[in-house]
Write the structure tokens for this entry.
Amino acid sequence: MNNQLKALRASRQWTQEDLANRLGVSRQTIIAIEKGKFDPSLPLAFKAARLFELPIEELFSDQD
Amino acid sequence: MGKLIDAILLKGLPTQDIKNANKVNLWVMLWAVSLVVPGLALAVFSFNNLVSTLILAAINIICGLMMIRAYRHMLRTLDEMERKIQLDALALSVGVAMLTFSATSILQTADILPQLMAHVLLTIMAFSYSIGLVLGRLRLA
């Protein structure tokens, strides 16, 4: 799964730690999601979408 | 090498998760001590008082239950990625235990190996669980 988390985080000048705190996960989880090594659960993906005020499909997309 | 050290030292985990993990470690140690002490008492002091043995067994069960409770609490408070790493490591540990048990059973039946001692199996499970944790963290780091 592809995601725009890193770009969106950078556009808001948040650190990985900031984003982790806002989403209630560890910084390691943010690193893994940004690198595409870990796919978040639906609740976490929706939480991120709400945080960035974007539809979920603009944040996450299928790899194909 | 840096990633490996970070994975072993739990670098990047929130402080609360590390505190919960330390509580689990404390109960694991107490449970291990409560497992070893009766065995030593039996071996060294020819200790065979029924009431005392039952008390030692009860202490072992209580420590075990507290260990399970602490681990369950830790799992519930972990974030989803760390929980996945923990569950994957547990699956590896259970799988290794099953394979070890089945393979040694065959070898015992053929009188190639002596009977598998419980502490050996527990050590193998603990070792494979630890390896699973480190591999999981390396894979997702």
User: Anything to note?
Assistant: Chain B has five helices and no strands. The longest helix of chain B spans residues 15-44. The helical segments of chain B are 2-8, 15-44, 50-77, 80-109, 118-140. Chain B touches chain A at residues 12-14, 17, 79-82, 84, 137, 139-141 (CB under 8 Å).
